Amino acid sequence: MQLAKRIKPLQTNVFADMDRAKTTAMAAGREIVDLSLGSSDLPTPPHILSAIADSLSDPSTHGYALFQSTQSFRRVAAAWCTRRFGIAVDPETEVLPLIGSQEGTAHLPLAVLNPGEFALVMDPGYPSHVGGVYLASGQIYPMSLRVEHGFLPVFEEIPSAVLAQARMMVLSYPHNPTTATASLAFFQQAVDFCQHHNLVLVHDFPYVDLIFNSQTAPSVLQADPEKSFSIEFFTLSKSYNMGGFRVGYAIGNATLIKVLRQVKANVDFNQYRGILNGAIAALTGPQDCVQQTVRAFRQRRDTFVSALNRIGWQASTPEATMYVWAKLPTPWASNSIDFCIKLVKATGVAVSPGRGFGKAGEGYVRFALVHPPEQLEAAVDKIAQFL
């Protein structure tokens, strides 16, 4: 059987690789403490669950959810964006429901790239940003993110030959995996750069609320309020602990929304309308649940970083997200995958290798803070024994 060449770069995936390692460790009798996947263990707020539950007995929600049936949700998402960022949004032409923001980042390249054209993506970065480009038969130019630059790309380093064939740039701040944040001034620089080189600017924004200082994460749409060439992806997975419900949305340039909708129409319909009703309840209901989630992850961050430092593993304190991005101890610095496989085999503690997020991630590991503080401290004790 002959398969498409585009599938070859997708044969390895950081989450799939670690899933196999976890399965092997469980088969050997290890109790797994899974810090490898950013799937929140916190519960979905009750008022959201009530909205979904109430929908189950309504037969009008049981059919296919075509675009028109999502109008109420689109209006709520547009109003939320206007309240949050002061950006006027047309819910009919500038909003599209998504099955999580990952759907948007994976499908948009199909509408933007011709075979062989470049996408500028972050290295390290989230795997679906790369995967979508490969599915579109595009080429990847990895924008290296280095600690000395605050894990922000240096646009001047991108070769002119690449820019001549580039059609899109993908950013995501607060950033997974490095936990870096970006200022509005940085986004204005990115907008100017993309405008000059005629690039679509894509911003994946799942951690909009998971900020631990007093600042607010800026939107790229604040730097491009006319939405001239920008699109931003949001999800309810992190802020409202709704990862399993797979609900997100895109807001941005009307043409980009239109072509992404055309791709989507050939792949799937929308979520069950009861889930969209839950999303409406999330965006319009009380927001104290979001602050409770932020406080929980802030406490976990402080506990985990303190525990790591106590065992001699120096790690910086992240300002955002639900992760800790830590440089590996010297003996392991050149092989993060080997470290993670041996760690889970020996201790049951599963973490993500930095190399799985891109070449520039080598030498790091990512810890997902998806367990209560006492379990995180116990995990660090096991890591100390392993080291």
Task: Describe the fold and architecture.
With 387 residues, the chain is of the alpha/beta class. It folds into two domains: 5-43 and 288-386, Alpha-Beta Complex (Aspartate Aminotransferase, domain 1); 46-284, 3-Layer(aba) Sandwich (Aspartate Aminotransferase, domain 2). Helices cover 39% and strands 14% of the residues. Strands 2-8-7-6-5-3-4 form a seven-stranded mixed beta sheet, with helices on both faces. It has a three-stranded antiparallel beta sheet with strand order 9-12-11. A two-stranded parallel ribbon has the order 1-10. Helix 1 runs parallel beside helix 11, helix 4 (101-112) packs parallel to helix 5 and helix 10 (288-310) runs parallel beside helix 12. The protein is globular and about 55 Å long. The mean pLDDT is 94.
Q: Concise description?
A:
This protein is α/β, with parallel strands linked by helices and 387 residues long. The protein contains twelve helices and twelve strands.
How would you classify the quaternary structure? single chain
Low-pLDDT parts are none
**Category by helix and strand content:** alpha/beta
**Which CATH architecture of the largest domain is right?**
3-Layer(aba) Sandwich
H/E topology pattern? HEHHEHEHEHEHEEEHHHEHEEEH
Taking the sheet with the most strands, its summary is: 7 strands, mixed
Question: What is the count of structural domains?
Answer: 2
- The CATH class name of the largest domain reads Alpha Beta
The name CATH uses for the topology of the largest domain is: Aspartate Aminotransferase, domain 2
In the sheet with the most strands, the strands line up as 2-8-7-6-5-3-4
Terminal CA distance reads: 45 Å
- Residues in helix, %: 25-40%
Q: What's the name of the CATH homologous superfamily of the largest domain?
A: Type I PLP-dependent aspartate aminotransferase-like (Major domain)
